[in-house]
Structure of branched-chain-amino-acid transaminase:
Amino acid sequence: MYYGYFNGTIAPTDQLAVGVTDLSLLRGYGLFDYFLTYNGRPFQWDWYWERFQNSASRMHLPLPLSKDETYAIVMNLVERSNEASLKTGLTSLNDLAFRFILTGGYSADSISVVRPNLLILAEMIHPTPTIQYEQGIKVILDEYVREMAEVKSTDYKRVILMAEAIRAARASDLLYQKGGEISELSRSNFFIVKGDRLITPDRHILHGITRKTVIQLAQSDFQVDERPVLLSELYDADEAFTTSSTKKVLPITQIGDLTIGDGYVGPKAKFLLERFDELVKTW
Amino acid sequence: MYYGYFNGTIAPTDQLAVGVTDLSLLRGYGLFDYFLTYNGRPFQWDWYWERFQNSASRMHLPLPLSKDETYAIVMNLVERSNEASLKTGLTSLNDLAFRFILTGGYSADSISVVRPNLLILAEMIHPTPTIQYEQGIKVILDEYVREMAEVKSTDYKRVILMAEAIRAARASDLLYQKGGEISELSRSNFFIVKGDRLITPDRHILHGITRKTVIQLAQSDFQVDERPVLLSELYDADEAFTTSSTKKVLPITQIGDLTIGDGYVGPKAKFLLERFDELVKTW
């Protein structure tokens, strides 16, 4: 059983509910963040908090809790969710995902922001299937760029709208490009590898915490270029991969009709995934 | 007291709530529609239903109710909301606003659509202040175009984000333009008047039901041009106005620094508002 926090109340997640005048429901006005715990501790907490705060500020929503208050609630939810799991007979404590959601709050005139609503939800982690790490994934190109891409708003209409097209292509996700410039996947960042160079888009993207972690881990072995990346650069890439909290470092072996490198998972993505797994093991 | 319907349950609106795995909350995946009743009957019901159905189809969400079932619920909510008002001592039955909200529904993996959630809410009408009809409103230009403008998705982030800028300019709303082409206001359509010509944008807009009604009402007295409208055309416009269900026909006398015509409410907008008021009086 998972617990959540909503405006001061802590309860099992399936007992939490939001009133129907919330501006996320009426007007799509909300933002979120999402991270995992490793060994019971929030991964890269300082960076996630900074990004959450930045999204809130860019959307003109004051945060109702301080960093320390929020951390205390997260740890409280870790404890309660674990206690509940132990009671149902599970013996090992598993790590959790956390979702913060900040909305425009309840609005009497259905447009004016008065006081934001804050949800903090502990969730089950949906791990990426092992076969995807072994074979790499296929993505399809989509001409699109997210509005206010740097803000983690809740606007993910595009990928839900494209779900049928993704399935029809036997692909896992979209790779967004606009006018030939690549930005990101629908919920994760994008890298290509050329020799000892890692190349990753630096604009029209959400600045991923896993992206930042991987760039740090890569410093001693790679030259990392953060810059605009063109579609044409895919043709002579050795490897491609995507990064996110749940995908970690996930190889991409096909982009639309184009096979990346030799079509198999490459050594550089594998190497970075190992470095990442080492880091989180002792987090 | 106002009543609402949520997935089969009818209750006072303030007792309705949506669980926290709804895709409108998690991913901004929702659409809506909004109309008024006149003399207790839904205004332009056929047209609103057609548009709601079209939005749902464009967002790949099956409608859980038929047109007739939905109409019966609307009339049920009219009755209950009126009964509740009578009990509290009000003697006259007032007209209501209705908001339909269709979301991506509850999602276990926070991205896949399984079964949409449908809300039908009776609401108080927020009438446009009389002084705005007497003096006209000011709007400010904003370089923006709504994604999937023809679909009434719940995505109104832009105008909420710009609320401070609108207030600072002592304006009432935004007029969207992109590359010099005007589309619409944040929640209403746009018209200019030149002589006996009504000119209104025909693309990148939500096809407003009030817009359609006004075009019908205008047929015998105006030539109506539905076509792309450029910013440069504002300079020699006699009048400008906006249309929506709650604004009806509302004059615009200032757009940014530009005064429209002589800066006063013009006779053509007044004439069309009178025609509109006559129509709804006997609806």
Q: What stands out?
A: The mean pLDDT of chain A is 96.
